[in-house]
Design a protein that fits this description.
This protein is α+β, with helices and mostly antiparallel strands and 96 residues long. It has one domain. It has one helix and five strands; from the N terminus they run E-E-E-E-E-H.
Length: 96
């Protein structure tokens, strides 16, 4: 994904499918808008699907099935992190 910096006066945020309409927020100060490097990713651990968006700077943002952020952003099952690291290594290889 290409990164670029623009000066903007308003910002529109994408909304998950079936969500409310897009809202535009006036920006009164300088800000940095960061989008995930990989969106709508999945891994399967012990038969359970773990959904996430990934940012190289922030790591995974774990998501519910409906696209909202999970309340707990730190899975306690070590197998989740093992599978995530496999995914991350494969993703890094593709980015080269």
């Amino acid at each position: 994904m290409e990164s670029r910096v623009d000066t903007v006066n308003h910002m529109s945020m994408p909304v998950p499918e079936g969500g409310a309409e897009v809202k535009t927020v006036p920006l009164t100060r300088s800000c940095f808008v960061s989008l995930p490097d990989a969106m709508d990713q999945e891994i399967v651990v012990e038969g359970k699907i773990w959904r996430f968006d990934f940012s190289e700077h922030l790591g995974p943002i774990w998501m519910n099935k409906d696209g909202t952020d999970k309340k707990c952003q730190c899975p306690t099952n070590p197998a989740v992190w093992v599978e995530f690291e496999k995914w991350r290594k494969e993703w890094e290889e593709v980015q080269k």
